[in-house]
Amino acid sequence: MTRANHEKSVTVIGGGVSGLSAAVFFAKENFKVTLVEASPKLGGRTYSFFDNIIGAEIDNGQHILASWYHNTFEFLKIIGSYDKLTFQKQLEVKFIDDSAKEYLFKCPKLPPPFHLLSGIMRYKALRFKDKKALVKLINTINRGRISEDKLRAINTNELFKITGQSERLSNYFWKPFIIAVFNAKPENTSAYLFSQIIKAGFLEKNGSKLVLPNEFLSKLFVDPAFVYLKNKNSNVITNNRVAKINFEDRIVNSLIIEDNTKIRSDFYISAVPFFELKNLFEKDAYDSNFKQVEGLKSSPIVNIHLKFDKSIDNIFNKRFAGLLNTQVQWIFKVKSDQMCLVISAAKEVSELDKNEIVKFAQNELEMCIPEFKNFKIIASRVIKEMRATFVPDKNSLSCRPKNATKFKNFFIAGDWTNTGLPATIEGAVKSSKQCVNYILSAAKNLTE
Ligand SMILES: Cc1cc2nc3c(=O)[nH]c(=O)nc-3n(C[C@H](O)[C@H](O)[C@H](O)COP(=O)(O)OP(=O)(O)OC[C@H]3O[C@@H](n4cnc5c(N)ncnc54)[C@H](O)[C@@H]3O)c2cc1C
Questions:
Q1: What is the pTM of this model?
Q2: CA 186 to CA 170: how far, in whole Å?
Q3: C-beta of 279 in contact with ligand 1 (< 6 A)
Q4: How many angstroms separate the Cα of 276 from the Cα of each of 20, 203, 417?
Q5: How much is the CA Rg of the chain, to the nearest whole Å?
Q6: What CATH code is assigned to 298-390?
Q7: Pick from 339, 119, 336: nearest CA to 208
Q8: Cα(225) to centroid of ligand 1, in Å?
Q9: pLDDT score for 445
Q10: If you measure from the C-alpha of residue 17 to the centroid of ligand 1, how many angstroms do you get, rounded to a whole number?
Q11: How many whole angstroms from 60 Cα to the centroid of ligand 1?
């Protein structure tokens, strides 16, 4: 944009959505950008590939976005992918329970919070007294009736107790929502983070619609970002891990990558997962600057890709549905004969072997939609993402670092940094956007 920016350079470590979006935002500002990714592929935890067993392209895990993913949309608009998304007209989710009973949660086109209240009142899975308790909880959050300090000190199961949420309400409404968004059960989800998502997801104007990708993940996020960066003459290095960060007097002066190349730039952003940060620094430097990160823990997600012997269109005509009282929480139709079943907060399940997982997922699918008994699974692929997200419990709040660090020209991005959001695509892109904003203003000050 400006000549001043043209002279500035930035190195981004890590080519997941966070690193890719940081690189793209800087390239747009005419920075000289270098992106270094350890693995041979870009995309981090968001990618797709051709699977020989299924005989088709699959995502590493089904991703769903929401209409409050503003930073993500900005990134996708720059790389030309925004039109590869389908926005729901209104929040609408079909749930099916383990006795094959179906319930529709659908919010009419009304301003918030009336759309939500109306959706809750029409949702037949809940009794009237559950609906009253649900509205009480939303009101408590909306009106700030519990202080931020108190919310930060408790997990969501405790908030449920305080506001009288019944087991039925938890199983038929809150759990599917919380497990999907946080990849954690209510007892492992900070009440503060939960309240932030209620505000953004349910109470913001147009915030609560779900957004589904029409493309496989690499074609949506990764390939177009790579093309954009190449067109901007950015230097994208893959298959080369950053091995060391050199600094002096709280200024980073270079990076060393695995092949011993030294990279120098004005600014540096780490966009690696929380468990990789310690590998960038010598022990003393890491301990004295980032020790709190050690408190974060990982939570797995298991995706089960199934190919059937014939089209399932006649028995499942939706793009996706939520399952209730089951370990499989969401089912997505990928093609007429192909599905993806999602198990989040999957610590126990992830310990099973892959055949066992397919068997019990198939069993749950048949409990909820008995017609599946007439269909044969001809191919399956189980993908266990053991470190899919961090566990967003109350302890995690003090472990998430700010994007600016004690090193003047070194910033940290990633879905696990202190964004106020759970580990999501939006959290990843928001963190990079925050780093970009810091650096743009620092770059401006340097040239003034
Ligand atoms: C199965 C699954 C389902 C999900 N579903 C959803 C969903 O529905 N909606 C949603 O919003 N989010 C979802 N998420 C979360 C979302 O994918 C993540 O929040 C996001 O991808 C994190 O991006 P990131 O760039 O912060 O980290 P990562 O994607 O982990 O990227 C970090 C990158 O850094 C690289 N790296 C590490 N060390 C080094 C080094 N020393 N040098 C160079 N590079 C290095 C890694 O190889 C990696 O590519 C899901 C995640 C998974 C796994």
A1: 0.96
A2: 9
A3: yes
A4: 17, 36, 13
A5: 22
A6: 3.90.660.10
A7: 119
A8: 15
A9: 73
A10: 6
A11: 11
CA-to-CA distance for 18 and 16, rounded, in angstroms?
A: 5
Would you call 321 helix, strand, or coil by DSSP?
strand
- Whether residue 201 has its Cβ less than 6 Å from ligand 1: no
CB distance 169 to ligand 1 below 6 Å: no
DSSP category for residue 52: T
**pLDDT tens figures, 373-396:** 999 999 999 999 999 999 999 999
Residue with tokens 């609408």: 92
CB 299 within 8 A of CB 389: yes
Q: Is the pLDDT assigned to residue 22 strictly greater than 50?
A: yes
Task: Please report how the helices 223-231 and 70-79 are oriented relative to each other, as an axis angle in degrees rounded to 10.
Answer: 60
Among 39, 38, 44, 25, CA closest to 280 = 38
The H-assigned helical ranges of 166-222 are: 167-169, 175-182, 191-197, 217
Q: In this structure, are residues 289 and 406 in contact, taking their beta carbons and an 8 Å threshold?
A: yes
- Cα angle: 119, vertex 313, 317; to 5 degrees: 5
Within 8 A by CB and 6+ apart from 1, the residues are 28, 29, 30
Q: Give which of 274, 271, 268 is closest to 292, Cα–Cα.
A: 274
3-58+74-80+214-296+392-447 CATH: 3.50.50.60
Nearest CA to ligand 1 atom 35: 14
Please tell me the distance between residue 330's alpha carbon and the centre of ligand 1 in angstroms: 20
Q: Ligand 1 in contact with 225 (CB < 6 A)? A: no
Query: Does the pLDDT at position 447 exceed 70?
Result: no
Rounded distance between C-alpha atoms, residue 343 and residue 345, angstroms: 7
Cα–Cα distance for residue pair 279/56, rounded to 1 Å: 36
**CA nearest ligand 1 atom 13, residue:** 424
Å from CA of 387 to ligand 1 middle: 9
Q: What is the pLDDT of residue 2?
A: 45
Please check whether residue 369 is in contact with residue 323, taking contact to mean a CB–CB distance below 8 angstroms. Answer: no
229-279 confidence digits (pLDDT tens):
999 999 999 999 999 999 999 999 999 999 999 999 999 999 999 999 999
Ligand 1 atom with the smallest distance to the CA of 428 is 26
User: Up-side HSE of residue 153: CA atoms within 13 Å toward CB?
Assistant: 5
120 CB less than 6 Å from ligand 1? no
Give residue 207's pLDDT: 67
Q: Checking phi first, is residue 214 left (phi over 0); if not, alpha (psi -120 to 50) or beta?
A: alpha
